[in-house]
Amino acid sequence: MDTKALRQKILDLAIHGKLVPQDPNDEPASVLLERIKAEKERLIKEGKIKRGKKSAKTSDTPHYSYLLPKGWEWCKLEDIVSFGGGKTPSMDNKEYWDNGKHLWVTSKDMKCSHITNSLMKITKKALEEMTLYEKGTLLVVTRSGILRHTLPLSILEKPATVNQDLKTISPHIQELSEYLYVIIKANEHIILKEYHKDGTTVDSIDFDKFRCLPIPLAPIAEQKRIIATAKNWFSLIDQIEQGKADLQTIIKQTKSKILDLAIHGKLVPQDPNDEPPIELLKRINPDFKPCDNGHYTQLPDGWCVVTLKDLCENINGLWKGKKEPFVNVGVIRNANFTKDFKLDYSNIEYIDVEQRTFAKRHLENGDLIVEKSGGSDNNPVGRTILYEGKSGVFSFSNFTMALRTRNNDIVLSKFLYYYILAKYQKGDMRLMQTQTTGLRNLILDKFLSMPIHLPPLSEQKRIIDRIETIFTSLDMIMGSL
Protein backbone atom coordinates (compact mmCIF):
# COMPACT_ATOMS: atom_id res chain seq x y z
CA MET A 1 0.00 0.00 0.00
CA ASP A 2 1.33 3.43 -0.98
CA THR A 3 0.56 5.29 2.24
CA LYS A 4 2.16 8.51 0.99
CA ALA A 5 -0.25 8.62 -1.96
CA LEU A 6 -3.14 7.83 0.39
CA ARG A 7 -2.23 10.78 2.62
CA GLN A 8 -2.10 13.06 -0.40
CA LYS A 9 -5.51 11.83 -1.58
CA ILE A 10 -7.06 12.67 1.78
CA LEU A 11 -5.52 16.14 1.68
CA ASP A 12 -6.75 16.68 -1.89
CA LEU A 13 -10.30 15.70 -0.90
CA ALA A 14 -10.08 18.10 2.05
CA ILE A 15 -9.09 21.18 0.02
CA HIS A 16 -11.76 20.44 -2.61
CA GLY A 17 -14.52 20.19 -0.02
CA LYS A 18 -15.05 16.46 -0.62
CA LEU A 19 -13.72 14.94 2.60
CA VAL A 20 -16.78 15.77 4.73
CA PRO A 21 -20.31 16.85 3.74
CA GLN A 22 -21.28 20.51 3.73
CA ASP A 23 -23.91 21.79 6.15
CA PRO A 24 -26.10 24.67 4.85
CA ASN A 25 -26.49 25.85 8.45
CA ASP A 26 -22.77 26.57 8.80
CA GLU A 27 -21.76 30.22 9.01
CA PRO A 28 -20.30 30.94 5.52
CA ALA A 29 -16.62 31.65 5.05
CA SER A 30 -17.44 35.18 3.85
CA VAL A 31 -18.49 36.02 7.42
CA LEU A 32 -15.31 34.40 8.73
CA LEU A 33 -13.24 36.58 6.40
CA GLU A 34 -14.91 39.69 7.82
CA ARG A 35 -14.06 38.56 11.35
CA ILE A 36 -10.45 37.91 10.30
CA LYS A 37 -10.26 41.36 8.71
CA ALA A 38 -11.58 42.99 11.89
CA GLU A 39 -9.12 41.04 14.05
CA LYS A 40 -6.27 42.06 11.77
CA GLU A 41 -7.19 45.73 12.12
CA ARG A 42 -7.33 45.36 15.90
CA LEU A 43 -3.86 43.79 16.00
CA ILE A 44 -2.49 46.58 13.80
CA LYS A 45 -4.09 49.26 15.99
CA GLU A 46 -2.59 47.70 19.13
CA GLY A 47 0.84 47.59 17.46
CA LYS A 48 1.09 43.80 17.65
CA ILE A 49 1.50 43.45 13.87
CA LYS A 50 2.36 45.81 11.06
CA ARG A 51 0.21 46.53 8.07
CA GLY A 52 1.78 44.59 5.23
CA LYS A 53 2.55 46.16 1.90
CA LYS A 54 0.52 44.99 -1.06
CA SER A 55 2.43 42.12 -2.58
CA ALA A 56 3.93 42.68 -6.00
CA LYS A 57 2.63 39.25 -6.92
CA THR A 58 -0.97 40.15 -6.06
CA SER A 59 -3.41 40.36 -8.95
CA ASP A 60 -6.75 42.16 -8.90
CA THR A 61 -8.25 39.23 -10.78
CA PRO A 62 -6.52 36.14 -9.40
CA HIS A 63 -6.96 32.83 -11.15
CA TYR A 64 -8.17 29.94 -9.06
CA SER A 65 -7.78 26.40 -10.34
CA TYR A 66 -11.16 24.97 -9.30
CA LEU A 67 -14.65 25.91 -8.08
CA LEU A 68 -15.35 25.80 -4.37
CA PRO A 69 -18.39 24.37 -2.59
CA LYS A 70 -21.14 26.76 -1.59
CA GLY A 71 -20.20 28.70 1.54
CA TRP A 72 -16.44 28.55 0.84
CA GLU A 73 -14.28 31.51 -0.22
CA TRP A 74 -10.94 31.95 -1.95
CA CYS A 75 -8.36 34.19 -0.31
CA LYS A 76 -4.60 34.56 -0.21
CA LEU A 77 -2.49 33.34 2.68
CA GLU A 78 -1.27 36.88 3.41
CA ASP A 79 -4.92 38.00 3.85
CA ILE A 80 -5.43 35.89 6.96
CA VAL A 81 -2.00 35.61 8.61
CA SER A 82 1.08 37.61 9.51
CA PHE A 83 4.62 36.43 8.83
CA GLY A 84 7.79 36.50 10.85
CA GLY A 85 11.27 35.06 11.05
CA GLY A 86 14.18 34.53 13.35
CA LYS A 87 17.94 34.46 13.71
CA THR A 88 20.80 32.78 15.54
CA PRO A 89 22.06 34.51 18.69
CA SER A 90 25.85 34.75 18.86
CA MET A 91 27.26 31.33 19.53
CA ASP A 92 30.32 32.96 21.14
CA ASN A 93 28.24 34.50 23.90
CA LYS A 94 27.74 31.86 26.60
CA GLU A 95 25.15 34.07 28.31
CA TYR A 96 22.85 33.34 25.37
CA TRP A 97 23.11 29.55 25.64
CA ASP A 98 24.29 28.21 28.99
CA ASN A 99 21.36 26.64 30.85
CA GLY A 100 18.94 28.00 28.28
CA LYS A 101 15.29 27.12 28.81
CA HIS A 102 13.50 28.85 25.92
CA LEU A 103 12.83 26.90 22.72
CA TRP A 104 14.91 27.88 19.68
CA VAL A 105 13.59 25.89 16.72
CA THR A 106 15.71 25.06 13.69
CA SER A 107 15.15 22.83 10.66
CA LYS A 108 16.57 19.92 12.68
CA ASP A 109 13.52 20.13 14.95
CA MET A 110 11.01 20.14 12.09
CA LYS A 111 10.36 16.41 11.98
CA CYS A 112 6.78 16.23 13.27
CA SER A 113 3.49 18.06 12.87
CA HIS A 114 3.58 19.64 16.34
CA ILE A 115 6.64 21.12 18.09
CA THR A 116 6.92 20.60 21.83
CA ASN A 117 10.69 20.84 22.25
CA SER A 118 13.90 21.90 20.51
CA LEU A 119 17.41 20.46 20.38
CA MET A 120 18.90 23.78 21.46
CA LYS A 121 17.52 26.37 23.87
CA ILE A 122 18.37 29.99 24.55
CA THR A 123 18.52 31.99 27.77
CA LYS A 124 16.29 34.82 28.91
CA LYS A 125 19.04 37.26 27.95
CA ALA A 126 19.10 35.98 24.36
CA LEU A 127 15.32 36.07 24.29
CA GLU A 128 15.48 39.86 24.69
CA GLU A 129 16.91 40.05 21.14
CA MET A 130 14.49 37.53 19.64
CA THR A 131 10.79 37.33 18.78
CA LEU A 132 8.85 34.83 20.84
CA TYR A 133 6.03 33.21 18.86
CA GLU A 134 3.00 31.89 20.65
CA LYS A 135 1.36 28.49 20.64
CA GLY A 136 -0.54 27.85 17.40
CA THR A 137 2.03 29.55 15.18
CA LEU A 138 2.93 27.57 12.07
CA LEU A 139 6.60 27.14 11.21
CA VAL A 140 7.87 26.39 7.71
CA VAL A 141 11.41 25.69 6.53
CA THR A 142 12.21 28.05 3.65
CA ARG A 143 15.97 27.51 3.30
CA SER A 144 17.46 24.01 3.32
CA GLY A 145 18.58 21.20 1.03
CA ILE A 146 15.54 19.20 2.18
CA LEU A 147 13.37 21.50 0.05
CA ARG A 148 14.36 19.45 -2.98
CA HIS A 149 11.77 16.88 -1.94
CA THR A 150 10.01 17.91 1.30
CA LEU A 151 8.44 21.03 2.79
CA PRO A 152 8.80 20.72 6.58
CA LEU A 153 5.80 22.30 8.31
CA SER A 154 4.90 22.26 11.99
CA ILE A 155 2.63 23.93 14.56
CA LEU A 156 4.01 25.24 17.84
CA GLU A 157 2.59 23.60 20.94
CA LYS A 158 4.66 25.91 23.16
CA PRO A 159 5.97 29.47 22.72
CA ALA A 160 9.29 29.45 20.86
CA THR A 161 11.84 31.41 18.86
CA VAL A 162 13.22 30.30 15.49
CA ASN A 163 16.39 30.61 13.45
CA GLN A 164 16.90 32.26 10.07
CA ASP A 165 16.03 29.16 8.01
CA LEU A 166 12.43 29.22 9.21
CA LYS A 167 9.49 31.52 8.62
CA THR A 168 6.56 31.84 10.98
CA ILE A 169 2.89 31.98 9.97
CA SER A 170 0.63 33.47 12.64
CA PRO A 171 -3.11 33.29 11.82
CA HIS A 172 -5.04 36.38 12.84
CA ILE A 173 -7.55 33.95 14.35
CA GLN A 174 -5.60 31.19 16.06
CA GLU A 175 -8.23 28.49 15.50
CA LEU A 176 -7.21 28.52 11.82
CA SER A 177 -3.82 26.91 12.58
CA GLU A 178 -4.77 23.26 12.09
CA TYR A 179 -6.78 23.98 8.96
CA LEU A 180 -3.95 25.99 7.39
CA TYR A 181 -1.60 23.10 8.15
CA VAL A 182 -3.86 20.84 6.08
CA ILE A 183 -4.07 23.34 3.20
CA ILE A 184 -0.30 23.96 3.01
CA LYS A 185 0.56 20.24 3.23
CA ALA A 186 -1.97 19.53 0.47
CA ASN A 187 -0.11 22.00 -1.75
CA GLU A 188 3.37 20.79 -0.80
CA HIS A 189 4.22 19.40 -4.25
CA ILE A 190 3.07 22.63 -5.95
CA ILE A 191 5.05 24.83 -3.55
CA LEU A 192 8.24 22.79 -4.01
CA LYS A 193 7.91 22.87 -7.79
CA GLU A 194 6.55 26.33 -8.56
CA TYR A 195 7.76 28.39 -5.60
CA HIS A 196 11.36 27.16 -5.68
CA LYS A 197 13.84 30.02 -5.78
CA ASP A 198 16.44 29.66 -8.51
CA GLY A 199 19.98 31.01 -8.49
CA THR A 200 20.75 30.39 -4.81
CA THR A 201 23.50 28.25 -3.33
CA VAL A 202 21.03 26.66 -0.88
CA ASP A 203 17.58 25.45 -1.91
CA SER A 204 14.98 27.96 -0.79
CA ILE A 205 11.35 29.02 -1.19
CA ASP A 206 10.38 32.25 -2.96
CA PHE A 207 8.52 33.70 0.00
CA ASP A 208 6.89 36.48 -2.03
CA LYS A 209 5.12 33.79 -4.01
CA PHE A 210 4.39 31.75 -0.91
CA ARG A 211 2.66 34.72 0.75
CA CYS A 212 0.13 34.68 -2.08
CA LEU A 213 -0.66 30.97 -1.81
CA PRO A 214 -4.38 30.56 -2.70
CA ILE A 215 -6.35 29.36 0.31
CA PRO A 216 -9.73 27.61 -0.14
CA LEU A 217 -11.35 28.86 3.06
CA ALA A 218 -14.11 26.63 4.40
CA PRO A 219 -16.68 27.68 7.03
CA ILE A 220 -15.12 27.40 10.48
CA ALA A 221 -17.49 24.60 11.52
CA GLU A 222 -16.59 22.58 8.41
CA GLN A 223 -12.89 23.23 9.06
CA LYS A 224 -13.27 21.47 12.40
CA ARG A 225 -14.97 18.49 10.75
CA ILE A 226 -12.23 18.33 8.09
CA ILE A 227 -9.48 18.39 10.72
CA ALA A 228 -11.15 15.70 12.87
CA THR A 229 -11.76 13.41 9.87
CA ALA A 230 -8.25 13.93 8.47
CA LYS A 231 -6.69 13.14 11.85
CA ASN A 232 -8.70 9.92 12.09
CA TRP A 233 -7.52 8.84 8.64
CA PHE A 234 -3.91 9.81 9.36
CA SER A 235 -4.00 7.88 12.63
CA LEU A 236 -5.04 4.75 10.71
CA ILE A 237 -2.30 5.35 8.14
CA ASP A 238 0.24 5.77 10.97
CA GLN A 239 -0.78 2.35 12.27
CA ILE A 240 -0.37 0.85 8.80
CA GLU A 241 3.06 2.45 8.42
CA GLN A 242 4.14 1.25 11.85
CA GLY A 243 3.00 -2.24 10.99
CA LYS A 244 4.89 -1.98 7.72
CA ALA A 245 8.03 -0.80 9.53
CA ASP A 246 7.71 -3.61 12.09
CA LEU A 247 7.34 -6.19 9.31
CA GLN A 248 10.37 -4.75 7.48
CA THR A 249 12.39 -5.10 10.67
CA ILE A 250 11.22 -8.70 11.09
CA ILE A 251 12.17 -9.49 7.48
CA LYS A 252 15.61 -7.97 7.98
CA GLN A 253 16.12 -9.97 11.16
CA THR A 254 14.89 -13.12 9.43
CA LYS A 255 17.43 -12.69 6.64
CA SER A 256 20.22 -12.27 9.17
CA LYS A 257 19.07 -15.43 10.99
CA ILE A 258 18.98 -17.39 7.72
CA LEU A 259 22.56 -16.35 6.97
CA ASP A 260 23.66 -17.24 10.48
CA LEU A 261 22.12 -20.71 10.17
CA ALA A 262 23.78 -21.12 6.77
CA ILE A 263 27.34 -20.46 7.94
CA HIS A 264 26.89 -22.82 10.89
CA GLY A 265 25.67 -25.72 8.78
CA LYS A 266 22.08 -25.60 10.05
CA LEU A 267 20.21 -24.40 6.98
CA VAL A 268 20.38 -27.54 4.85
CA PRO A 269 21.14 -31.17 5.82
CA GLN A 270 24.61 -32.60 5.36
CA ASP A 271 25.18 -35.42 2.87
CA PRO A 272 27.82 -38.00 3.94
CA ASN A 273 28.52 -38.69 0.27
CA ASP A 274 29.79 -35.11 -0.29
CA GLU A 275 33.56 -34.88 -0.71
CA PRO A 276 35.00 -32.92 2.24
CA PRO A 277 36.79 -29.74 1.08
CA ILE A 278 39.87 -30.64 3.14
CA GLU A 279 40.58 -33.59 0.82
CA LEU A 280 40.44 -31.42 -2.26
CA LEU A 281 42.56 -28.72 -0.62
CA LYS A 282 45.26 -31.27 0.21
CA ARG A 283 45.23 -32.69 -3.32
CA ILE A 284 45.71 -29.24 -4.80
CA ASN A 285 48.29 -28.23 -2.22
CA PRO A 286 49.95 -31.12 -0.32
CA ASP A 287 51.44 -28.62 2.15
CA PHE A 288 48.05 -27.15 3.06
CA LYS A 289 47.30 -27.09 6.78
CA PRO A 290 43.80 -26.19 7.95
CA CYS A 291 43.18 -23.94 10.93
CA ASP A 292 43.18 -25.48 14.37
CA ASN A 293 39.70 -26.96 14.75
CA GLY A 294 39.96 -27.06 18.53
CA HIS A 295 37.98 -23.83 18.83
CA TYR A 296 35.29 -25.03 16.44
CA THR A 297 34.05 -28.26 18.02
CA GLN A 298 30.51 -27.69 16.71
CA LEU A 299 31.54 -27.86 13.04
CA PRO A 300 29.26 -30.10 10.97
CA ASP A 301 30.72 -33.29 9.59
CA GLY A 302 32.74 -32.73 6.43
CA TRP A 303 33.38 -29.03 7.14
CA CYS A 304 36.82 -27.52 7.79
CA VAL A 305 38.17 -24.18 8.95
CA VAL A 306 40.28 -22.11 6.59
CA THR A 307 41.01 -18.41 6.27
CA LEU A 308 39.86 -15.97 3.65
CA LYS A 309 43.39 -15.66 2.26
CA ASP A 310 43.53 -19.45 1.82
CA LEU A 311 40.61 -19.21 -0.57
CA CYS A 312 41.11 -15.88 -2.35
CA GLU A 313 43.69 -13.52 -3.71
CA ASN A 314 43.12 -9.88 -2.81
CA ILE A 315 43.66 -7.14 -5.39
CA ASN A 316 43.90 -3.53 -4.28
CA GLY A 317 41.89 -0.88 -6.10
CA LEU A 318 43.48 1.53 -8.53
CA TRP A 319 44.54 5.15 -8.36
CA LYS A 320 43.87 7.41 -11.30
CA GLY A 321 46.71 6.84 -13.76
CA LYS A 322 49.08 9.39 -15.31
CA LYS A 323 50.83 7.42 -18.02
CA GLU A 324 49.38 6.79 -21.45
CA PRO A 325 47.88 4.87 -23.09
CA PHE A 326 44.59 5.31 -21.24
CA VAL A 327 41.37 3.37 -21.37
CA ASN A 328 38.04 4.89 -20.29
CA VAL A 329 36.34 2.56 -17.82
CA GLY A 330 33.66 2.61 -15.14
CA VAL A 331 35.06 2.50 -11.62
CA ILE A 332 33.17 0.96 -8.71
CA ARG A 333 33.29 3.24 -5.65
CA ASN A 334 31.84 3.14 -2.15
CA ALA A 335 28.94 5.22 -3.48
CA ASN A 336 27.92 2.26 -5.65
CA PHE A 337 27.28 0.04 -2.62
CA THR A 338 23.56 -0.08 -1.80
CA LYS A 339 22.08 -0.58 1.66
CA ASP A 340 21.11 -4.12 0.76
CA PHE A 341 24.66 -4.99 -0.33
CA LYS A 342 24.05 -4.85 -4.06
CA LEU A 343 25.75 -2.91 -6.84
CA ASP A 344 24.14 0.34 -8.00
CA TYR A 345 25.05 0.96 -11.63
CA SER A 346 23.15 4.27 -11.88
CA ASN A 347 26.02 6.46 -10.68
CA ILE A 348 29.11 4.72 -12.02
CA GLU A 349 31.98 7.17 -12.55
CA TYR A 350 33.93 6.78 -15.79
CA ILE A 351 37.59 7.86 -15.79
CA ASP A 352 40.72 7.41 -17.87
CA VAL A 353 42.80 4.59 -16.41
CA GLU A 354 46.27 3.48 -17.41
CA GLN A 355 45.89 0.53 -19.73
CA ARG A 356 48.58 -1.47 -17.93
CA THR A 357 46.91 -0.81 -14.55
CA PHE A 358 43.47 -1.74 -15.82
CA ALA A 359 44.86 -5.02 -17.14
CA LYS A 360 45.72 -5.96 -13.55
CA ARG A 361 42.76 -4.39 -11.80
CA HIS A 362 39.66 -5.05 -13.84
CA LEU A 363 36.74 -6.97 -12.42
CA GLU A 364 35.91 -10.52 -13.37
CA ASN A 365 32.54 -12.17 -13.02
CA GLY A 366 32.29 -13.55 -9.48
CA ASP A 367 34.70 -11.10 -7.86
CA LEU A 368 33.85 -9.81 -4.39
CA ILE A 369 34.31 -6.05 -4.02
CA VAL A 370 35.17 -5.09 -0.44
CA GLU A 371 34.97 -1.61 1.05
CA LYS A 372 38.27 -1.16 2.85
CA SER A 373 38.16 2.57 3.66
CA GLY A 374 35.53 5.18 4.45
CA GLY A 375 33.49 3.57 7.21
CA SER A 376 32.23 5.06 10.47
CA ASP A 377 31.06 3.95 13.90
CA ASN A 378 27.52 3.39 12.65
CA ASN A 379 28.56 1.88 9.30
CA PRO A 380 31.76 -0.12 9.66
CA VAL A 381 33.94 -0.84 6.66
CA GLY A 382 33.92 -4.34 5.24
CA ARG A 383 30.73 -4.06 3.23
CA THR A 384 31.05 -6.58 0.42
CA ILE A 385 29.16 -6.97 -2.84
CA LEU A 386 29.26 -9.68 -5.47
CA TYR A 387 30.06 -8.58 -9.01
CA GLU A 388 27.98 -10.58 -11.47
CA GLY A 389 28.69 -8.98 -14.83
CA LYS A 390 30.94 -9.12 -17.84
CA SER A 391 34.62 -9.55 -17.13
CA GLY A 392 37.01 -6.79 -18.13
CA VAL A 393 34.37 -4.02 -18.21
CA PHE A 394 34.70 -2.31 -14.81
CA SER A 395 37.50 -1.57 -12.37
CA PHE A 396 37.36 -0.52 -8.70
CA SER A 397 38.66 2.43 -6.71
CA ASN A 398 41.51 2.61 -4.21
CA PHE A 399 38.94 2.71 -1.38
CA THR A 400 38.01 -0.87 -2.26
CA MET A 401 39.67 -4.16 -3.05
CA ALA A 402 38.63 -7.27 -4.94
CA LEU A 403 38.64 -10.83 -3.65
CA ARG A 404 39.01 -13.44 -6.37
CA THR A 405 38.57 -17.13 -5.51
CA ARG A 406 41.64 -19.22 -6.26
CA ASN A 407 39.74 -22.36 -7.19
CA ASN A 408 36.01 -22.61 -7.94
CA ASP A 409 36.10 -26.34 -7.21
CA ILE A 410 36.79 -25.54 -3.55
CA VAL A 411 34.65 -22.49 -2.82
CA LEU A 412 31.94 -20.60 -4.67
CA SER A 413 32.24 -16.81 -4.61
CA LYS A 414 28.52 -16.48 -3.92
CA PHE A 415 28.91 -18.65 -0.81
CA LEU A 416 31.72 -16.37 0.37
CA TYR A 417 29.52 -13.34 -0.35
CA TYR A 418 26.77 -14.67 1.92
CA TYR A 419 29.35 -15.75 4.52
CA ILE A 420 30.93 -12.28 4.75
CA LEU A 421 27.47 -10.67 4.73
CA ALA A 422 26.49 -12.83 7.72
CA LYS A 423 29.63 -11.76 9.58
CA TYR A 424 29.05 -8.09 8.75
CA GLN A 425 25.47 -8.13 9.97
CA LYS A 426 26.57 -9.76 13.24
CA GLY A 427 28.94 -6.82 13.79
CA ASP A 428 32.20 -8.76 13.40
CA MET A 429 33.67 -6.09 11.11
CA ARG A 430 33.80 -3.59 13.98
CA LEU A 431 36.73 -5.62 15.34
CA MET A 432 38.51 -5.52 11.99
CA GLN A 433 38.70 -1.74 11.50
CA THR A 434 40.89 1.02 12.85
CA GLN A 435 39.47 2.69 15.94
CA THR A 436 40.84 6.18 15.32
CA THR A 437 38.61 9.21 14.94
CA GLY A 438 37.24 10.10 11.52
CA LEU A 439 36.97 7.57 8.72
CA ARG A 440 37.51 3.92 9.53
CA ASN A 441 39.89 1.65 7.57
CA LEU A 442 39.77 -2.11 7.28
CA ILE A 443 42.68 -3.87 8.99
CA LEU A 444 43.52 -6.13 6.08
CA ASP A 445 45.48 -8.73 8.04
CA LYS A 446 42.57 -9.29 10.40
CA PHE A 447 40.07 -9.38 7.56
CA LEU A 448 42.05 -11.77 5.38
CA SER A 449 42.75 -13.99 8.39
CA MET A 450 39.02 -14.30 9.09
CA PRO A 451 38.17 -17.97 9.77
CA ILE A 452 35.83 -19.45 7.19
CA HIS A 453 33.77 -22.51 8.08
CA LEU A 454 33.93 -24.25 4.72
CA PRO A 455 31.40 -26.93 3.71
CA PRO A 456 31.75 -29.33 0.78
CA LEU A 457 31.15 -27.77 -2.63
CA SER A 458 27.86 -29.63 -3.11
CA GLU A 459 26.58 -28.34 0.22
CA GLN A 460 27.63 -24.81 -0.69
CA LYS A 461 25.37 -25.06 -3.74
CA ARG A 462 22.47 -26.34 -1.62
CA ILE A 463 23.01 -23.51 0.89
CA ILE A 464 23.02 -20.88 -1.86
CA ASP A 465 19.84 -22.29 -3.43
CA ARG A 466 18.09 -22.35 -0.06
CA ILE A 467 19.13 -18.82 0.86
CA GLU A 468 17.97 -17.41 -2.47
CA THR A 469 14.65 -19.28 -2.37
CA ILE A 470 13.87 -17.86 1.07
CA PHE A 471 15.17 -14.37 0.24
CA THR A 472 13.06 -14.26 -2.93
CA SER A 473 9.93 -14.95 -0.90
CA LEU A 474 10.87 -12.35 1.71
CA ASP A 475 11.63 -9.78 -0.99
CA MET A 476 8.20 -10.39 -2.55
CA ILE A 477 6.61 -9.68 0.83
CA MET A 478 8.76 -6.57 1.23
CA GLY A 479 7.85 -5.37 -2.26
CA SER A 480 4.14 -5.72 -1.58
CA LEU A 481 4.23 -3.49 1.50
What would the average pLDDT be, to the nearest integer? 87
Distance between the termini: 6 Å
* Strand segment tally: 21
Helix count from the secondary structure assignment: 14
What Rg, in angstroms, do the CA atoms define? 31 Å
Strand content: 15-25%
Q: Largest sheet, described in full?
A: 5 strands, mixed
Q: Would you identify the regions where 5 or more consecutive residues have pLDDT less than 50?
A: none
Strand order in the sheet with the most strands: 2-9-6-7-4
Oligomerization state of this entry? single chain
> In percent, how helical is the residue content?
25-40%
Can you tell me the overall shape?
elongated
Structure description:
The protein is an alpha+beta fold and 481 residues long. Helices cover 34% and strands 17% of the residues. It has 14 helices and 21 strands. The strands form seven sheets. Strands 2-9-6-7-4 form a five-stranded mixed β-sheet. The protein has a four-stranded antiparallel β-sheet with strand order 12-19-15-17. Helix 1 crosses helix 5, helix 8 crosses helix 12 and helix 8 packs antiparallel against helix 14. The longest helix has 44 residues. The chain is elongated, with a radius of gyration of 31 Å.
What descriptive keywords fit this protein?
five-stranded mixed sheet, four-stranded antiparallel sheet, alpha+beta, 14 helices, 481 residues
